[in-house]
Specification:
The complex is a heterodimer of chains A (326) and B (444).
Chain A: H1 26-48, H2 50-73, H3 84-94, H4 103-117, H5 130-141, E1 149-150, E2 167-168, H6 171-178, H7 184-189, H8 201-213, H9 220-235, H10 240-245, H11 249-256, H12 267-287, H13 294-311
Antiparallel strand pairs in A: 1-2
Helix pairs in contact in A: 1-2, 1-3, 1-8, 2-3, 2-4, 3-4, 3-5, 4-5, 5-13, 8-11, 9-11, 9-12, 12-13
Chain B: E1 33-34, E2 40-44, E3 54-55, E4 62-63, E5 68-71, E6 80-81, E7 86-95, E8 101-109, H1 129-138, H2 151-155, E9 163-168, H3 177-184, H4 186-200, E10 204-210, H5 214-223, E11 230-235, H6 244-252, E12 267-271, H7 272-284, E13 290-296, E14 304-309, H8 314-320, E15 332-335, E16 342-343, E17 357-361, H9 380-384, H10 391-399, H11 419-423, H12 430-443
Parallel strand pairs in B: 1-14, 9-10, 9-12, 10-11, 13-17
Antiparallel strand pairs in B: 2-8, 3-5, 4-7, 5-6, 7-8, 13-14, 15-16, 15-17
Helix pairs in contact in B: 1-4, 3-5, 4-7, 10-12
The chains are: A mainly alpha (326), B alpha/beta (444).
């Protein structure tokens, strides 16, 4: 889209004020997210081998190709330069089991971009986080593939439990089905079973610090999300650090729940959104049918965003506390 | 906190807004100097909020510098004066910096006799409040920071006003005219504030100054050391700190209710330039015929803070600072600051009472690419909006022509400061959409 410019015979530039911008663009924000996810990606490849790199490449390739293909179908300029499809592909890859056949990430990426984003009207219009839409689709369609976890490099035998030698379990599985508590250091470093980019808390925190320092993400969502999980874990009598470090919580709280399009825009709404994600995650983890609840917690809260924003509208200055009418 | 402990950039502030690059170093150390009057001035008959003036001269008339050439019986108005001596050559519609045309008096300059010489020097202390107000009214003062609201109307209030706030924030990038005025004319500024305090009955004056002007703070602090009725408030360097409501909120903590005049809250805000002009009007009987204008930009050979006669065409201003108006292909010439100022297409437009700056931005600073995308809901505009609105929602509704919903989203509370568009990563022309929608909503 373009501002209708009145070209002037004088040759002077007449674009409307403000006459300059801060230089931050959707593309620069998306590239920051990619940079922030690099440590987690590298950690995934380190712990799960080159297959993890191939899974990542497949998901990104699938996302970019789908984005470009849809733009062509709609006769629009190809928008992959904005980096959003790259982020979606990468995020999807990071929440897949590392050893899946390579067609699976491609299918997930196609679904994420085509159904999760394009069907809603493209970037800015999608109600749900596209990467999580893709993951949810894969979990529902290929449950076995999506729960076959690979051994990380350097892990101990204790992790095998009753599972076979080829595959292992995630720390949340181990706790839920066998009452085995994974050591916190393994969880922190990422030497546990799980999706390829979710296991290393250390790597994810490094990236999160980068995003927070650069102002790319708002601290309110992850703080409210993680805080709620910690409090509820304490109430349920489980070490809060375990619940914070296990599963895809760190990935979800810093990289998925903070998605601009599908999250709340109001500062207060972001706190409510984060708390809601935390409550749903813990309810699913403790009482739900799945051992992990981050994906569905965030997707459910995505659906609640219009309602949240309605009740957290900023009070206009000088309005005497009266909220804007919507 | 003690003034001496304030660090550059720090200070009191409001909620919202954002730091924008200053670009003030081009001119913030350059002393105020006079610009030679142009061969011809173009003086629009309305340079203020309110009623347009009736023309008091005819083509062919000889006028003195400072002679009143336009006035109105309406309460909300301000008279217009000849900024040079000379001959009236035309009274007709001429291009105006707001993009349209306006009835203007064109005067061919008599360079010999265009210097304003005060007839007398008056002592404000020996003048009554009514005489002070009359002097300000007759001088045609109007808010010089940009608002152009007639100063007389502003100070002639029945409401009890205990506080005068002098606006020395100057939060727009590039502009340094108020900065230099505070450094060089501190005594006159203080005297001007005393005049305004008497007019409105205020007991206290706050000087709000952003802390990127530490030299101005120092000069004024030294002069005001023993004064209890003056207080300097160092302000954080944040845009749009200089907007009236945020200044009042920052300094007094009072919320200006929607649509209320600030006098209803017991305070009146005046730009430092206007305050200085009030001093000159009272003491020298000097009408509003010239003002300090910051002429700046990375490609301007002689940037500076110039005293420019009202009615001076932009092209004259540019030539005087070494810019060839015919060699500006792809450049942008802005009247005002870069956040809210208007890009000009016709360089014959004159400087008027509220023009703070004439800026030339080179092509590499001007956004060539004016494409934008859908809102990505990053929330930056919501977080930064100083009026706590939903700029994103306003821009979406305006973009798609859903005008009937804009009032529900408080479009009239938008002050068009531009911070939303400044931070928007999707490059959405948010203010442009809002400005374009306002007249349409108004007619509904």
């Amino acid at each position: 889209m373009n501002i209708d410019q009145h070209l002037d015979p004088s040759g002077l530039s007449l674009a409307p004020s403000p006459h300059f911008r801060n230089g931050i663009t959707v593309r620069s924000l998306m590239l920051d997210v990619v940079i922030a996810l690099l440590p987690a990606t590298v950690a995934g490849i380190y712990f799960f081998g080159m297959d993890a790199a191939l899974v990542t490449a497949s998901a990104i390739g699938g996302a970019l190709a789908t984005e470009a293909g849809i733009a062509r179908l709609r006769g629009e300029p190809i928008s992959i330069r904005d980096g959003s499809a790259l982020v979606t592909g990468l995020l999807l890859a990071l929440c897949l089991p590392p050893g899946v056949p390579l067609w699976l990430p491609v299918v997930g990426a196609i679904f994420a971009i085509a159904v999760g984003k394009a069907l809603f009207g493209g970037l800015g219009m999608n109600i749900f986080n596209p990467a999580l839409v893709g993951r949810a689709f894969l979990v529902a369609s290929f449950p076995t593939l999506m729960t076959t976890w690979r051994w990380p490099v350097g892990s101990g035998d204790w992790m095998a439990g009753e599972f076979d030698a080829l595959s292992t379990a995630t720390p949340l599985d181990l706790l839920r089905y066998e009452g085995v508590m994974t050591p916190l250091t393994d969880l922190f470093v990422g030497r546990v079973g799980g999706s390829l980019g979710e296991t290393s808390v250390l790597a994810l925190l490094l990236g999160a610090a980068y995003l927070l320092a650069r102002g790319v993400i708002d601290w309110r969502i992850p703080t409210a999300y993680l805080g709620t999980v910690a409090v509820l874990a304490g109430l349920f009598g489980v070490n809060p650090l375990f619940h914070l470090f296990a599963g895809s919580l760190m990935l979800g709280a810093f990289y998925m729940a903070t998605d601009y399009v599908s999250g709340a825009v109001t500062p207060g709404g972001r706190v409510v959104f984060g708390i809601g994600c935390g409550v749903l995650t813990m309810l699913i983890r403790i009482y739900g049918g799945y051992p992990e609840g981050v994906t569905f917690a965030i997707l459910l809260m995505n659906a609640a965003v219009p309602l949240i924003e309605r009740f957290t509208a900023p009070r206009r200055l000088g309005g005497g506390g009266e909220s804007s009418a919507h | 906190m003690e003034l001496k402990d304030i660090k550059e950039g720090e200070g009191k502030s409001f909620e919202g807004g954002a730091h924008v690059p200053h670009y003030k170093s081009f001119t913030d150390n350059i002393p105020i100097s006079r610009m030679a009057p142009p061969a011809e001035v173009i003086i629009p008959l309305q340079q203020h909020v309110g009623a347009s003036c009736d023309c008091l001269v005819e083509v062919g008339d000889k006028v003195e510098v400072g002679q009143k050439i336009g006035d109105s019986d309406a309460y909300i108005s301000a008279p217009i004066h000849a900024s040079v001596a000379g001959t009236v050559t035309a009274i007709e519609a001429r291009p105006h910096s707001d993009g349209g045309e306006m009835d203007s008096v064109v005067i061919e300059t008599d360079q010999e006799h265009s210097e304003f010489v005060p007839q007398e020097t008056r002592d404000p202390d020996e003048m009554s409040v009514d005489e002070l107000k009359e002097a300000i009214k007759e001088a045609g003062l109007a808010g010089m920071g940009g608002a152009a609201f007639p100063t007389y109307v502003n100070i002639n209030t029945d409401q009890p006003v205990d506080t005068l706030i002098l606006n020395g924030a100057e939060c727009e990038p590039f502009l340094t005219c108020d900065h230099r005025l505070m450094v060089e004319k501190a005594d006159e500024l203080i005297a001007g504030a005393e005049i305004l305090m008497r007019c409105i009955g205020a007991k206290k004056t706050y000087l709000g100054i952003e802390t990127n002007k530490m030299d101005a703070i120092e000069v004024l602090a030294t002069k005001l050391e023993d004064r209890d009725d003056f207080e300097i408030v160092p302000l954080a360097v944040k845009y749009p700190q200089g907007y009236k409501s945020y200044l009042i909120k920052t300094i007094t903590g009072r919320d200006v209710p929607r649509g209320a005049r600030s006098a209803a809250l017991g305070c009146i805000v005046r730009n430092v330039g206007t305050t200085f002009a009030a001093y000159e009007a009272v003491v020298y009987g000097k009408p509003f015929i010239e003002r300090i204008v910051t002429v700046s930009g990375p490609v301007v050979p002689e940037p500076g803070n110039y005293i420019v006669r009202l009615g001076t065409p932009a092209e004259h201003v540019l030539r005087e600072v070494g810019v060839d108006p015919d060699e500006l292909e792809g450049h942008k010439v802005i009247f005002g600051g870069p956040m809210t100022g208007l890009a000009q297409s016709d360089l014959r437009v004159p400087v008027v009472k509220n023009i703070t700056g004439v800026l030339v931005l080179p092509p590499d600073m001007v956004r060539e690419d004016v494409s934008y995308t859908d809102c990505v809901r990053c929330g930056l505009c919501v977080e930064r909006c100083p009026n706590w609105l939903y700029p994103n929602q306003l821009s979406i509704l305006a973009e798609h022509g859903i005008y009937e919903k804009l009032e529900d989203w408080d479009i009239w509370d938008c002050i068009e400061c531009g911070i939303c568009a400044y931070v928007c990563p999707a490059d959405r022309p948010i203010v442009h959409f809002i400005k374009r929608a306002k007249p349409i909503v108004d007619e509904m």
